[in-house]
Amino acid sequence: MPDRVAFTLGPLTVYWYGVLITFAVLIGYMLACHEQRRVGLPEGTMLDIFFYIVPLAIVCARVYYVVFSWDSFRDNPLDVFKINKGGIAIYGAVLGGILGAFIFSRRRKLRMSKLMDMLTPSLILGQAIGRWGNFFNQEAFGGLIENTALQFFPVGVYIEALGEWHYATFFYESMWCFVVFAVLMATRRRYTHSGDVLAWYAALYGAERAIVEGMRTDSLYLGQVRMSQLLSMLMVLAVLALFFARRRDKRAGDVVALIVGCVLGTGLIVATCALGAYALVPELACVAGMLALCVYLYRAPADAPRAYASR
User: Fold this and answer.
1) What is its main location (predicted)?
2) 88-115 burial code (b ≥16 CB/10 A, e <16)
3) Known binding site: residues?
4) Nearest alpha-carbon partner for 218 in 134, 96, 283
5) Phi-psi region of 223 (alpha: psi -120 to 50; beta: other; left: phi over 0)
6) What is the pLDDT of residues 24-64, one digit of tens each?
7) Any bridge partners for residue 90, and if so which?
8) Would you state the torsion angle of the CA atoms of residues 108, 114, 116, 119, taken in this order, to the nearest 10 degrees?
């Protein structure tokens, strides 16, 4: 079992989870500063915005977790403030970060979509790094691996507390986030609309999370629906709707694509609720179809104006 403790300083115990989250924030900040210079924003802009984003991300990550795990806090409400015991959610952090960026953009009179295009690579890279905190905490893993041939890392991870091998879903997500980061960095100069980097983040990360969330054993639920899976599908559907709305000359195929995307998103949630752990194949089919529809609807007119110039 990996040691959760990175080091101690007298009475202070520093955990690997905290070290990795801090490292993720610092790397994200450095990358954001690079993007700031690339698009010509004044020096210090990213430092200022991080003072908005980071606190709100932490608070919202905790609030999100508490809201959907209230039964665990009902008898001891003060445990809500014991964040050192664990219990934060990445989607809460993302929503908090976006809220911080929105407040900052309003105060500085900056275009929100342009700001998010600069911050999104930092976000996905931070997620890729931060997921390794789950490795040291032995959390965010998937179902039991019964096939002994698959009982090895990185396919699985041995959970000491259970004495069992489980699917290493945190690893799958981390690797996918690195891939999405590479894709966004390689293509960010080619997009024709402000906000496209954020849109493709939502589509690509949402697609992956919808599948991996269905494999996890610690999901937060809204009724019988996994909340993160529902949000993931809504993200992909929002991107589909955005790309559809941009189409200047909407054709019958565009309308069909949007309708089919909505059907696939609904089908994924229904399949997960009905089939549980056996829903992986229909989940993959639904997500692949939705991403294909995103690509189809993204085809922009050749004369579409760029929202801002990249250096």
Assistant:
1) membrane
2) bbbbbbbbbbbbbbeebbeeeebebbbb
3) 131
4) 134
5) left
6) 999 999 999 999 988 888 888 999 999 999 999 999 999 99
7) none
8) -90
